[in-house]
Design brief:
The complex is a heterotrimer of chains A (231), B (130) and C (112).
Chain A: E1 2-10, E2 20-28, H1 34-44, E3 64-67, E4 70-73, H2 79-82, E5 85-89, E6 96-98, E7 101-102, H3 105-113, H4 133-143, H5 150-154, H6 156-160, H7 166-177, H8 185-192, H9 206-210, H10 217-228
Helix pairs in contact in A: 3-7, 4-7, 7-8, 7-10
Chain B: H1 3-11, H2 23-50, H3 57-64, H4 67-95, H5 99-125
Helix pairs in contact in B: 2-4, 4-5
Chain C: H1 2-25, H2 32-42, H3 45-74, H4 80-111
């Protein structure tokens, strides 16, 4: 066990005009997830600390936050990954609700805008719709996105203009556009092809570095750009 | 999307590229970029590695008397100005979110772009001037 | 992110340079005396030094731009950092090759 110092950004909309940092100390093993440390604080030190979490196993995407400057899942990040002085902040560029909780309305609005569902109007076969492994390989990574918003929140284009559809929604668009069984390719391409679409991606790679699932998001957006140019 | 947001989007439609949504701007930026790299390597090699890097009226006059050099310089001017101003355009699109400011800056960009292109064209094609 | 930020800044600097360059070269229209006078001013050591700086900015923008083009058209996102350093090594080599003659002329001019 070692002492870990936490600096957590706090904001109570009922009391505070702007966010401020508060310090906490937690005893933890090197293998303790940051999320467990936050629980320790909430359950034994300050019950007012607010943050989102659900599964605790890097599959629900609820506990994305900025840990030592990088967007990560608190449940997947171990103390030994980030050191003994840990700064925890809410995700950048989204409206702050309370402490580590941000408003993700805009994020989901973008997500819904690209028709995030499978479209195939041909009558279903007796078994499943067959797909070749090499076709599945195209979208395997993209389909493993857990919608944690780490990528969109890390993108400088989104910092500058939150009308930008963002890497997450573009990745989801890629996941369906490059799905050989999907039939709404044209509609989806038309939906993203605006001045707030992939043209606002400047190949900065922050999304790739932020993604807790190591998805090659920049590459997916690059493929969309070529597709939109009929290349 | 809320009605208010939809309206906001429609209002900002004029900054959207019609038809291609910006795909061609993106493609041209890369194509002109490639051309400029080739041209600039030639330009630098000829002026500074083969030549002495000295620029006098006579040196330039000698070069511009050759129609091939005029074509080369016109291509350079066209690609570089386009690439540069399209780049600034994209930066403005990122950081200037107020429509009135954007309109003002875009107008200034178009105007200065045309003026600079005219000035450059006069220099290259109008030579010799007497 | 740093590569992108530098790409933007160098790009803006190059646009500013391009505008100045077009104005300066337009002095050709006013005859040999005026053009040579302007060029003599621009041939001074301070401007020669800035010219070396210009070469560096151009090479950075050009080779980082080539890296972006490679990534856009052929992929390479997984090795983008290695690609960056490969490009920077090529750019640095060209910088030395290009800056040497300018620096040589500069030293010659200073010696006289």
């Amino acid at each position: 066990m070692q002492k870990i110092r936490f600096r957590i950004k706090r904001f109570n909309p009922a009391k505070d005009r702007r966010p401020h940092f508060e310090d906490f100390t937690v005893e933890a093993e090197p293998e303790t997830p940051v999320l467990d440390c936050l629980h320790e604080i909430k359950w034994h030190q300050d019950g007012t600390l607010a943050f989102r979490r659900s599964c605790g196993h890097a599959i629900c995407g609820s506990c994305a936050m900025t840990i030592n400057g990088q967007n990560r899942l608190a449940c997947q990040t171990l103390v030994k990954n980030v050191g003994k002085n840990i700064i925890v902040e809410p995700l950048r560029s989204f409206p702050l609700e309370k402490d580590l909780i941000v408003n993700l309305d805009r994020f989901y609005e973008r997500f819904y805008s690209i028709m995030p569902y499978f479209v195939n109007n041909s009558p279903p076969p007796d078994t499943e719709r067959i797909q070749w492994p090499e076709d599945q390989e195209l979208i395997d990574e993209a389909a493993s996105c857990i919608l944690c918003a780490s990528c969109t929140s890390s993108c400088p284009s989104f910092w500058a203009d939150d009308d930008y559809i963002g890497p997450s929604a573009l990745l989801k668009a890629y996941r369906f556009i490059f799905d050989t069984r999907d039939q709404a390719q044209k509609e989806r391409l038309a939906l993203i092809n605006t001045s707030k679409g992939p043209w606002k991606c400047h190949t900065i790679f922050n999304c790739n570095e932020a993604c807790p699932k190591d998805i090659d998001i920049t590459n997916a957006i690059a493929r969309l750009k070529l597709k939109l140019n009929d290349l | 999307m809320s009605d208010e947001k939809k309206q906001e989007h429609t209002q900002s439609m004029w900054v959207r590229n019609t038809g291609t949504g910006g795909s061609r701007t993106w493609l041209f930026q890369r194509l002109t970029g490639l051309f400029i790299v080739l041209i600039i390597l030639l330009h630098f090699g000829i002026n500074h590695l083969i030549g002495t890097g000295e620029v006098t009226y006579d040196v330039v006059a000698n070069r511009l008397s050759n129609p091939l050099w005029k074509c080369f310089d016109m291509a350079f001017l066209t690609f570089a100005l386009y690439h540069g101003f399209a780049g600034v355009w994209v930066v403005v699109a990122d950081y200037v979110q107020t429509n009135s400011w954007r309109l003002a800056i875009y107008s200034a960009l178009i105007l200065s772009g045309i003026l600079l292109y005219a000035l450059g064209t006069i220099t290259i094609l109008g030579f010799p001037f007497k | 992110m740093v590569s992108w930020a530098l790409h933007r800044l160098s790009g803006l600097a190059l646009v500013a340079y391009l505008c100045l360059h077009i104005f300066v070269i337009h002095n050709l229209a006013y005859g040999p005396e005026r053009f040579d006078r302007v060029m003599e001013l621009l041939g001074s050591p301070a401007f020669k030094l800035m010219e070396i700086g210009l070469l560096g900015v151009i090479l950075y923008h050009a080779f980082n731009g080539l890296r972006v083009i490679i990534i856009d058209f052929w992929g390479g996102t997984k090795i983008q950092k290695q690609l960056f350093w490969i490009m920077m090594v090529i750019a640095a080599a060209l910088f030395v090759a290009g800056a040497a003659p300018i620096a040589g002329h500069l030293l010659n001019a200073l010696a006289h």
